[in-house]
Amino acid sequence: MLSENNLDLEIALRKVHELSMAEGDLGYAYWHEVGRLLRRAAGMQAEIDSLSKELERCRAMLAHKTG
Fold first, then answer.
1. Which of 2, 30, 31, 55 would staple 20 via disulfide (CB 3.0–4.6 Å)?
2. How far is the C-alpha of 43 from the C-alpha of 35, rounded, in Å?
3. With 80 as the cut, is the pLDDT of residue 30 above it?
């Protein structure tokens, strides 16, 4: 899971999984949620990157039409 900013979440997610397995039920629930948040954050960053590119494209088209 390599994002555009070159952050490999697989390493972090493996570590979170190790922590979750080492800490029993309560620790598992906590670290499982942390892993879920990391995945969601990566998805949100990918969406932000995509929307930023689309915004740049739209601005370039607008500048071309008005300029």
1. 31
2. 13
3. yes
